[in-house]
Design a protein that fits this description.
The chain has three helices and two strands, in the order H-E-E-H-H. The longest helix has 40 residues. It is mainly α and 114 residues long. A two-stranded antiparallel ribbon has the order 1-2.
């Protein structure tokens, strides 16, 4: 004679279900979504190193008064260099010419688009 055990007494099988390992599924999903960014990472790194870092350094250096010789220390002047630039009439003449050149070149190129 066989004795049957009711199903409620049996321990649930948790380890075999996919819901039991959500960290693996999340990791797999994150890696699958990160693949394009991993391909872009070298280009983004070079963009930051060769473009944005020098740009930030140039903006930082523009707030100092320094003749680029190591014998003279850098003196912070803040925005005084920019104030002096804006006060120059040659700056505004150059800005006007630049705007006129851009305004003159943009419409002429738009008619050549296919």
């Amino acid at each position: 004679m066989f004795v049957t055990v009711p199903e409620q007494d049996a321990p649930p099988v948790i380890a075999a279900t996919p819901a039991a390992r959500p960290h693996r599924a999340l990791l797999r999903r994150a890696l699958r979504g990160a693949t394009p960014y991993l391909y872009l990472a070298p280009a983004l790194f070079l963009l930051v190193v060769w473009t944005y870092q020098p740009l930030v350094q140039a903006l930082q250096l523009s707030t100092y008064s320094w003749n680029l010789l190591p014998t003279q220390p850098m003196r912070p002047v803040g925005m005084a260099n920019y104030k002096r630039l804006v006060d120059l009439p040659a700056f505004w003449a150059s800005a006007r010419r630049t705007v006129w050149m851009i305004a003159g070149c943009c419409p002429s190129r738009s008619r050549y688009r296919c």
